[in-house]
Fold this sequence. Notes:
By secondary structure, this protein is an alpha+beta fold. α1 packs antiparallel against α4. The protein has helices at about 1-15, 100-105, 125-130, 215-235, and strands at about 15-30, 40-45, 50-75, 85-95, 110-120, 140-155, 170-175, 175-185, 190-210. The strands form 3 sheets. The chain has a 4-stranded antiparallel β-sheet. The chain has a 3-stranded antiparallel β-sheet with strand order 5-4-8, with no helix packed on it. Strands 2-7 form a two-stranded antiparallel sheet. The chain has 4 helices and 9 strands.
Amino acid sequence: MTLTGIAIGCMAGSAAADVMTTSASITVDSNSPDFGTVNPVLSRFDTMGGTRVLTGIDINLQLAGSGTIVVENFSETAYSAGEWSVEGGVNWIYLAGMPDGGEETGSFIPFFGLGGFGIAPVTGDIEAGMGPFDPFGGGMPGRFEVDFDGEGDSVLAVDPSNFDVFIGTDDIVGVFGPFTDLLLDDPNFALSASTQDLLFSGTLSLTYTFDVVPAPGVAATLGFGGMIAARRRRAR
């Protein structure tokens, strides 16, 4: 009775899920030489010789920062207030590996969209803030700037089909950077909009959920203990 209870208890305990987290601090500066991309280093999931089975991966992102929207007028006429607007957002992309040689070796490096935050609609009086563009007079395009800030906190569950990329005993040297999406409402199609001076900081992390299974030797011992308990019951 006692041996049987111990064997069952150990086997049941091995089915409990566990969690491991690896994280990297991130600073994104669009004015840096790498044009706002960084290479976070995150640990892969080690199966410990098959004694741990990966059941889930969450990519966690927490970022906050700011930037500037720049609108330029390339037309020879001025816009009145309310005749244009711009809105959009800053989104984040994580590539789980380095693309160098990826196409040559045929290896697949998954990328993940980690969300971001929206930029509220911005309108302005270009005529007052900047004059029209006079290309023959040596002038510069009219220019309008507005600062914005925001923060993002997202969790993305990785599809099991991509688990293999995250399994190993080494680190993942990835690629992380912003993707800005601006929607410019311009009836004359003479304006351009862009972002500059993006500066964000935060944390990118991977949370691995896994089950612990007995090593082959332990499993054999548990099985042998169960056989002994069964024989003792039959002997009684």
